[in-house]
Amino acid sequence: MSKVKRILSVIMAMVMVLAMSVPTFAATTPTANDTAKGTVQNVEKAATVTAYQITKAQYDGGFIGYVKTDNKLAIADVLAPTSDEVTAIAKQIASGAVTLKSKTMTGAAVADDVKYTDFTADLNAGYWLVIVSGTVDEVYNPMLVGVYYSANGSDNTMTSNPVNADSNWTLETSNAYAKSTTPSIKKEIVGGETAKGNDVAIGDTVNFKITTAIPSYSKQYDTVTVAISDTMSAGLTLDKNSIKINGADISADMIEKVETTDHGFTLTVKSDYAKENGGMELVVTYSATVNDQATVNFDPNTNKATLSYTTNPKGDVKTTDSKTYTYTFSIGAALSAATQGYTEKVNQIIKVDEKGNVISKVEEKSQEPDEKVVEVLKGATFTLTNTKTRKVYTAESGEDGGLTFNGLDQGTYTLVETAAPEGFTIDKTEHTVVIAATYNEDGTLNTYTITIDGKNTSTYTATYDKEGKVTTIATTTTVTEIKNTKLSALPSTGGIGTTIFTIGGCAIMIVAAGLFFATRRKTQK
Q1: What is the radius of gyration, based on Cα positions, of the chain?
Q2: pLDDT at residue number 19
Q3: Which has the closest alpha carbon to 484: 352, 347, 350, 348?
């Protein structure tokens, strides 16, 4: 008997499980309140996803079919809207020509490092047109989510077959998988130390290249924005006549508007051209000259390219950008801008007197009673010549005895004094100066080194934060001294031999004069 009870218990459990698997709406009459969970997969979690109902179910003692939700909607077959019809409806929604029942779909929670998620909403029977908007990076095409009644024995497709309490029905959904494209833009330096970072001298020309592609837009998009802009810092001057697209001059068939300034430009692609040429690569090339407003050392002369593009039929516009860094070096200037807190100078070369005393503008009190304060030595003129380009830079020692050369490229230079301060002789020694630099992957300057005469080396290394700003600069510095000798310290002209000869000559003249006068006296006697 107990065995029979156990068997009956198992059978009852199976019946309960099977009962739980019976569709929720079985043995009930379909109504306008019926809903099912509609899902759109693979959407950026920061997006706003909205579903608009374009067809709905009709009821009369049960489900009897589908109709349009608004007579303004052009749908020939409510069971199968075409892509052209969906395109037209998306435009109507974007323009406000129709006001449809809508629901905001909710994104599933995901980890911080996960970009995409699924969005869901409880939707009534019918077709829902889903539009993705908000803060997104990608271009999304409108999608359809279908919610439909499926009776026992029917296939999983939307039909208008009547469904009632005797139909053993369920409410099914045809979910959507979001298809999107991610527009991008890449900015490069042509012929630089790296594609993202380089160094040049003031007056040099830098060649740039922007690579991007026109986003692919479906027919749902009426008017789209696609624009390429470039913004340079004050130290770069645009050559307005150098702009080319895919190796040719700017075409009026492609570009609707061209705007240029001394430090940048904007190229706006025609809307119709963009829609007809989705996926087309655009390569923009141009050049700029480094001017005397260029910042030096760890302060870069930046160049940012930006792509602006429409992300949805509503007309929302998103931007993405890419930046390059152009540097020029200075000897004797601040390591970085005062606004970033770095005012230490790169004083690699200083003037000293013949005793090797460093000359300083600030007169500090002597700690020793017999210690002398050395006067400022300024006014020495030097030339710094690039051994490759032969470009010559000139500097004069300042109040602190230091030299400042601005706008230098990395490379090898020859330093020579051409004029000494008043009262001093020229030091004719030629000094070899080498500037070398390394770059981070993003193009920012990592380190640069100044070596003088192969032994005195100063190295500067920067640390950056996430925003690309310099946080610290580590320095290892040595000083190169160039001595001048006072004229009063030089030996007398002619040397000791001339002095002895002169003294001897005078003595002979004195003896001769004495003999002359003595002989004259004898004659008179």
Answers
A1: 43
A2: 37
A3: 352
Neighbours of 214 (CB within 10 A): 22
462, two tokens:
């920067």
The secondary element (H helix, E strand) that includes residue 500 is: helix 495-524
Which is nearest to 218 in space by CA: 169, 270, 279?
279
Helix (H) or strand (E) run with residue 288 in it: strand 281-290
Maximum Cα–Cα distance for the chain, whole Å? 186
CA atoms of 139 and 313, how far apart (whole Å): 10
The tens digit of pLDDT for each residue in 470-490 reads 888 887 766 666 665 565 444
Instruction: For residue 105, give both structure tokens.
Output: 């779909």
- Domains of the chain: which residue ranges? 24-180, 185-327, 330-362+373-488
**Is-contact 139 215, C-beta < 8 A?**
yes
User: Is domain 330-362+373-488 given the CATH code 3.30.365.10 in the classification?
Assistant: no
* Architecture label for domain 185-327: Sandwich (2.60)
Cα distances (angstroms) measured from residue 458 to each of 328, 348, 443, 454: 17, 8, 22, 11
Are 185-327 and 330-362+373-488 the same fold in CATH?
yes
